[in-house]
Structures are given as C-alpha cells and as structure tokens.
Amino acid sequence: MSSSSTVDLSHHLSNEAKLRLPNPMKEIWRLARRKPNMVSLANGDPHSSLYPIKGLQFEVASLEEEDPVAAWRTAGPSAPSQILKSSRDDPCILPVQTAFQYTTGAGLVEAQQALTELANFYHNPPDHVVTLTLGNGDAVTKCFRLLGNPGDHFLADEFTFSALANAAVPQGIRWVPLKIDEGGLIPEELERTMADWNEERGPRPHVLYTVPCGQNPPGSTLTVERRKKIYELAQRFDLVIIEDDPYYFLQYTSPASSDGAEARALSPSFVSIDVDGRVLRVDSFSKIIAPGMRLGWITSSAFFHAHLVTYTDSATQHPHAFGQIFITELLGPAGWSVKGFDKWVRSLRNEYQRRRDLFLSLFEKEVGPTGLARAGTPEAGMFVWARINVERHPRFRRDTGAAGARTNCRQLMVELFEKCLDGGLVVMPASVFALTLDPKYNDAENPIEDRFNYFRLTFAGTEEAMREGLAILGLSLREFFEQK
Amino acid sequence: MSSSSTVDLSHHLSNEAKLRLPNPMKEIWRLARRKPNMVSLANGDPHSSLYPIKGLQFEVASLEEEDPVAAWRTAGPSAPSQILKSSRDDPCILPVQTAFQYTTGAGLVEAQQALTELANFYHNPPDHVVTLTLGNGDAVTKCFRLLGNPGDHFLADEFTFSALANAAVPQGIRWVPLKIDEGGLIPEELERTMADWNEERGPRPHVLYTVPCGQNPPGSTLTVERRKKIYELAQRFDLVIIEDDPYYFLQYTSPASSDGAEARALSPSFVSIDVDGRVLRVDSFSKIIAPGMRLGWITSSAFFHAHLVTYTDSATQHPHAFGQIFITELLGPAGWSVKGFDKWVRSLRNEYQRRRDLFLSLFEKEVGPTGLARAGTPEAGMFVWARINVERHPRFRRDTGAAGARTNCRQLMVELFEKCLDGGLVVMPASVFALTLDPKYNDAENPIEDRFNYFRLTFAGTEEAMREGLAILGLSLREFFEQK
C-alpha cells in the first residue's frame, strides 16, 4: 500500500454521497484535541464500568494438523481447539471496555489493522485502505449508494446474484447485462457495450459490478488476461469497478491435476492492479468462516474510504464489537495469525475441491449418460452451472413469438424444474438470476430467455445430498425428455 | 399483541419501499416446501461442519445482589458473574451451527422470540411485531428510507441528535422543526404547524420523529398527557410516528423524592397506545448494555415489519449471530431471563439517578452562585440542558441584523465555548443540535439562533469529570461575563 493514486474520480459519487454531512459533533471533538487532559462533559456514552460484560471467549479450530479442515470436520467434539479471549480485567488486544464503546464508521483501529494486514498479505494493493463492513450485502449495497444516482446505468454479468443486483433497482439504478461465456465476463462484450452506447438511452454506464472468482451462479472465474483487459477498458471508459469476491479463497486446480497437488495460486485481484483507485474490492468471511459473522471489509482508495465511513456513520454505524474482537484476536498473535489463517483457507480450498470433484464424478455417472445435460467445471466457488440440452426435447420449438423469446426454452425449463421438485429435488433455475432489465433493451437476436436452460447446483452441501440429488436429476431428465 | 389494526397506511411508504423486490430465490424455497425431505442442491451455504467455531462464552454480571449494578461497578475483577454459552456440541438455545447460518432479514426465530417477550413485558403493544436491527442508527435510518421520498417533510424537535437527523437530508427529506419547552415537544406547536401548513411549501409532513424520554440534547421527557395529545394529532393529521427511545430504561424520579425510593414507573410508550399501527418504535441496548452490541429492535405493525425485512434483505442482511446468541441466552432461562433484565435496568436507573443528582448538586455549588446559567432537571437520559443567561453579558445586543438572528446570542456562545476549551473543558453547544432547515422557513420573529444559549452536559461520565468540569464551567462563566 505505497505510491499514490492521482486520478480524480469524484464525479462518480452519487448526489446523496456528495450531500452527506459529517456528524457536526466531530468538529467539536476535533477542537477539543487542542489541549491534552481535556475534561469532557460532552459525550453521552455509558461508562464502561456499567457494561455488564466481563469477558468473551471463542473456541475455534486449532491448526496443529497438516490438513486442519479435514481434522476439524471429522473429529467431532474431540477436535483440537484453541481459545480466543477478550476481557475487562486481563490483557488482550481488544479489551471489553475498548471494544464495546462507540467508534466511528471506520471501526476500531485494532480491527482495521488486522484486516489491513490480511488485505496486504493477499493483494498488496497500491495505495488503498480498508473499511470494515457488516458483510457482503452491506458492503455491496453501500457501494451502490455511494456511486448510483436515479437513472444511472451499471454493468454486470447477465446472470448474477439477483438478491444483490435487485437491491439497486429501487434506488433507480438500471442494469446493463453483459453476455458471458464459460470464462465469465467477455472483455470484447464490455468494450462493444461501452463503445456503441447510445446516449438516447441515458447516461453511459460508469460502474461495473463483477464477481471475478466463482461467479454466482455460473461458477466462472476470470483469467489474468481478461482481468487486465477489463481493467484497461475501465480506464479507457472511466468505469469504477465493484469487485465482489466472496469466493476468492475457494479457487481450485483443474480436476486432472488436483489429486494430491498443492492448492493453486490465487488469481491476482482487480484491486491488486488498481493504480487509479477505481476499484472497490469487497471481501467476506461468510464462505470461509461462517455467514453469521456479518463482518467483512472493503479495500478502496482513501477517497472512497472517507465517503464510505461518512455513510456508515449516517446509516448502520460501526460494526459490532463481537466480530471485531473475534477477527482481531483470530488474526493476532494469540490466535491463528495471518499465516495460520492462510493455512486454514488452503485446507478449506482442498476440502471444497474434493467436494467439487466428487460432484463432477457423480454428475458424470448419473447425468452424463443421458446426454441431456452438461456440467461446467468451476475453478472457484460453490456452484456448478449445468447446461440443460433443451433443444433435444421433443416439444422444443424455435420462433414461438412469445414475449421477446425466440424459443420455448423458458417454458420447458419451468416444466423441468417442476419435474425435479416432484421427484424430491430442489435446484436453482437460471431464470432467478437474470438481471432485471428494460425489455426494450433485451437483445432481439439473442434474447436472455433463450439462455434460461441452466440449473445452478451446489457442491457445498453433504455428500449424501449430492448422491441423492444427482440421481434424481438424472431420472427427472430422462423422464422429462421422453415426454411428447 | 392481540387485536388487529385496521388503518391502511400504505400511502406512507416511500417509492423505494414500494419498488423493492423480494429475493426471487424465496419463491423457489417456497415451492420446495411442497414435499417433506426434499433434497437440495440449491443453496450455496457453507456446511456448518466447516465453521471453525466450536463455542462462544460470554461472562456477564450476576444478579445475586440486591443492587447488582452497584455491586458490579465496585467489586472489580472479583464481581460475581455468570456464563452464557452457545456450543456446537452441547445443548443451548442457539447452537453455533444454527446461529451462524444465513437467515432472512427478520433474524433468527429464537432471537425474535426473546425480543418479543421483552417488548410485551414493557409495552404490551396492540398487534405489533418485532424486527431485529443493527442498533439505533441502523433502525432509525431504515425507517427514514421506508417512509421518505425526496421532497417529503418530516417533523422533529428543533434541537435533536443531529447525526441522525442529518442522515435523512441527502435522501431529500426536509426537516420541519417544532418548538419545545422543558417538557419537550409541545402538542399545540405540532397542531399549529400541521393546521397552518401552506401547501406551496411542498407536501404536508407525514412523519414525526421524536425521542419521548430524555430527548437528546434537551433531556426532556413527555408527560402521559402530551403523549396522548400527540397520538391523537397523529391520527387527525395522518402522521406516522418514529418513536426513538434509547433512554426509556433510564427514567428517574424527581430529585426530592429519589432518596431511597423505588425506581419510578416507566412512562407508557407511544407504541403501547398505538391502535392504528402508525408507530414504529426503536429500541436500543447501547445505553443499558453497551454501544458495541450493535443490536436492537423495532416494534411496528406487521405491515411495516414486512417492508423492513425486505429492505434488510436488500441492504445489511440479518444481524450478526454473536449478538443474537448473546441476547437470546441473556434473556433465556440459563441467563438473566426478562425478570432479571428488569432487575438490572432498575438498578442501572438508580445508578444514573444518583449520578444525575450528584451532577445537579455540583452544578448548584459551582455554577449556581454565578446566576449566569441554570440547569434543567432531566427525568430521563444522560443529559442536562444548561441554559446560559446570555442576555446578562455586557456585549449582549438585540437586533443585530446578522443573518436571520435578532440577537448576538450565537456569537457570544461561540466565544463562551472557546473560553471553556481554553479552561480545559469540552461541552456540546446547542448549535450542533439545531435541525438543518431551509433558512426561508426559519421563524423570523423568534429565530432558532437566538435559542443557541444552551450547553448539553452529561452526567454519564465519572464523578471526577463532573467535579472538575463543573468547576471549570463556573470559572469560565464568571470570567467570560466580566468581559467588556
């Protein structure tokens, strides 16, 4: 985190962000710093002697074993563990009386330091700083508020995690879908969309929202070459990139090379090559620790950081003390440290890679012989994007003329989904991940509804669920495709 | 929480709230419930066997003593305590593998139940439900988003906690200040403002934001009579009330009657008399447990609850597992239970009442003899609103003609504030709490700047801070008022 970004990106701020006022009490506190030992009758903070909390303990996995995740998962109650502590009366990094006070939206200095160390270890971003968040949803939607005015256009993969993309819609942000292939976002599609933009449609997109690793749902991961091209296009067309990367730590080798091999090197993130300060990178502990953590961080330029902190002060306020203590002690010398954290996530990566490979071999066995579906091979994340070969169905039709679509793909997929449900299997159909967009701007030659022939399937569940689920899928496909 | 509210209040929703889409995956999960024992390949949730967390422990105050707060505050490390636990392997209300999963914005059922029991114990609101929040700031700003369109007018006390009120401004909400007296919001001022509203100014206010107990900064508390009148006016003028009540549990008897007396009965809240479902009540643990909790709750009609949950799903997502475990176990049979919680807050109330009375007696000794300032006697909260008798200053002038103001009150108060800082004391001047408003609608006869002659002083700090601080204040006043 050295050197200095010089590009002025203030025109990307939303009007809300520009209008937001800092807390006027901050100015009073600033003035009060002119003398040491100032007596304060200013703040209405409950005195820490009145917090009814003496200490917290978290019992977490120990990292003694070579493969700590496998040991932890299989050993049950006797699994080796270690204790993280915060106390009112005993030494620790974040004692109760410090951690449980009001802080600013930036969070506690100790927690920021811990996450800065982690961000540097993996990304070493040029001249960026860390802002604590309340998890991924909080982080991404704060970025939307920071950058989006009503009527603005944002770019994203045409299939994306809809709960998050939809969150921007009531704010007046309009999504512009980018076609994808198995490698995810196609730089040439991005270039074409920006270069051919018709201003009559409204302002040209100025934000790209992307999940570079294990994109949800298609499971795609951007190559280094695509990342570089996309960043260059962001510079050329003045785009801000929201890099939402919850699956960063779950990147896999190809199935052929994975047997016993070392975990693969992690792809360089957008933030690691961000010389302009135009990347807001969102990190999450939900997939590698637990979803209930509700603590994560954004890595961005100091400029965007300052606006994120002001917004946080005016909305959620600072993150909870519990999670800040947990993560500070976990990454600290009495916990795992960053090196131990890396050991855990490497081991976790191997665990999920085994699950992915098991899933793919079960798919090959149960579904492969039907010839009716094909599984992609995700290089990251938790999802297999399975293409259903819908054009082989006896009732498949082209040029149906139904609302925009040129085939009856959508209808057949609804029926197949129902067939699976009747068989006792629930999957996520592609339709729920299609970006909400103005039908006027759907691609008339190649409308998105004709690409609804995918199911998102996860390998994050149990082995039993994979075995049973894929058997049901194979059977449902066979029966459904025999229908006249 | 019986009977049923019948008033349709859907016209109060903001356009954002109306446009917000529920997560489309919810529909899939709903369909999947048609059969038991469905196999799922749908959700990308990390399996709980991979959470590296085995258990959590919170060591909290025990309630054995008659006056548990006094015992806890004075006993130091040997203070009697009890342990709250959540475990992966041992029985508890919220085991790790349940608490740390993804949940909806409504939070975990067990935590909702615990807070519902608490809300019923104190308010027994007619036909209302509880929504978990991430603390007071999160709750109030979510209410602003739920109800406010750009250009809308909201009502509030003219001096109010500015960090929160300012949060609504970038969203386009315009504040309409209501004049207050020592008893807080004056019902007749509310009636006059609504009845005399000139539509040329824009849409008539439809939301009242109010802090009924220990209003910050003036420390005022609404009488039962005022509450009833205000609720009737809300019905007559179709107002939604945001009842922000962080100091509810810190209500005091008058100084004369407080010596050894039982803690006073808590005033009936707006939500307890809300037959229409037009009150959104915001509760916080920050003042009675600790600010770092970042967990609270809103009590509202089921209608507003549903919109709050959808918004939470589209923004912060559900509250952190840590706080949900803490509060569920604390209020549960293995913790304090609601009865024990009530014992703690009664004891805490006595503690703050002692501090208030000490503060007032010190004020009487150090400042009273000057005749230059007068302390209000707050019946709740953490603040004394001290009136500075600025008109006694040799340089006090009327009809100065300076920007709106009719006196030089504002300027003299800036000087007095600086004088206190030079003496080593920091206080909060009234100016930082003045609502941001369009100068065009300032009261020309009685502009707010001429009422800036107040300091907000807290009695929440240490006895030493009160002694030293009030001595400095007395001295600063004397010296400042001798200036020619």
Q: So, the CATH homologous superfamily of the largest domain in chain A?
A: Type I PLP-dependent aspartate aminotransferase-like (Major domain)
Based on the structure, what is the oligomeric state of the protein chains? homodimer
pLDDT under 50 segments of chain A (min length 5)? none
Question: Which CATH C-level class of the largest domain in chain A is it?
Answer: Alpha Beta
Look up the CATH topology of the largest domain in chain A: Aspartate Aminotransferase, domain 2
Q: Let me know the largest β-sheet of chain A.
A: 7 strands, mixed
GO molecular function (chains A, B): pyridoxal phosphate binding; transaminase activity
Cofactor (chains A, B): pyridoxal 5'-phosphate
Protein name (chains A, B): L-tyrosine:2-oxoglutarate aminotransferase
Pfam family, one (chains A, B): Aminotran_1_2
Descriptive report:
Chains A, B: One of its GO terms (biological process) is alpha-amino acid metabolic process. Chains A, B: Belongs to the class-I pyridoxal-phosphate-dependent aminotransferase family. Two copies of one chain form a homodimer. Chain A is of the alpha/beta class and 484 residues long. Chain A has two domains: 235 residues, 3-Layer(aba) Sandwich (Aspartate Aminotransferase, domain 2), CATH 3.40.640.10; 137 residues, Aspartate Aminotransferase, domain 1 (Alpha-Beta Complex), CATH 3.90.1150.10. In chain A, 35% of the residues lie in helices and 15% in strands. Chain A contains 14 helices and 17 strands. In chain A, strands 4-12-11-10-9-5-6 form a seven-stranded mixed sheet, with helices on both faces. In chain A, strand 5, helix 7 and strand 6 form a beta-alpha-beta unit. In chain A, helix 5 crosses helix 11 and helix 13 crosses helix 14. The longest helix of chain A is centred in the last third of the chain and has 30 residues. At the A-B interface, helix 1, helix 2, strand 1, strand 2 and helix 3 of A face helix 1, helix 2, strand 1, strand 2 and helix 3 of B.
